[in-house]
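Annotated sample (chain length 78).
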Amino acid sequence: MSHFYGSIPTSARKTEPTARGHKNTGLKTRAASWSGAIETRLFHNPATGLDEFEIHQTTHHGAGVYRLLAKGVVGQTD
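Output written by the structure step:
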């Protein structure tokens, strides 16, 4: 059974594409424009037993910058 689930609820497609990830693979998404991209990464940290996330601004076709925007534990505010 999948541990992570992703979807694209708003796009030019008529159906909502989805993706699944497991504890050992995690799930990474990427949304891009010609100015750069945003990546989100969900992963299970076996040391803590918690699901964590990272959000990065990154380059796309040579445009944009690489920068960590946020990271934390899924379901927690701090």
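Annotation: The longest strand covers residues 36-45.
Annotation: The two ends are 28 Å apart (CA to CA).
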